[in-house]
What we know:
The protein is mostly helical. Helix content is 84%, strand content 0%. The longest helix is centred in the middle third of the chain and has 33 residues, at 66-98.
Amino acid sequence: MKIALLYALLAAVATVANIGSQDVVVRLYDGPLHLMASVVVGTGVGLVVKYVLDKRYIFRFQARDMAHDSRTFALYTVMGLLTTVIFWGFEFGFHWLYGTDEMRYMGGVIGLAIGYVTKYHLDKRYVFKAEAA
């Protein structure tokens, strides 16, 4: 139960980083690709924040060296592709249905929540299996 609560808290931190980054991009850039740019930037920021938090606090991962950490991050990113499809599906789906930034962000939060639950199981099984706490 403790790990679930900690994971939920860290997922919330990464969600705020993701959605917050998106909002900054939308406020600074209103060109033709502003929505895609905001989602891509938010996804990247959220990915890095979540990796750092997960490897330290959830899986207590210690890389042997930079190459090991880089390979682990690459695998972590690959496992995130499925969850990114879930997240983007909800975010763009809500945007299409409701047409507002607020509802797009709501869809993003829902998609991230579903994606993070899925991602935890993928990471535990495939990414951090040898170093799992």
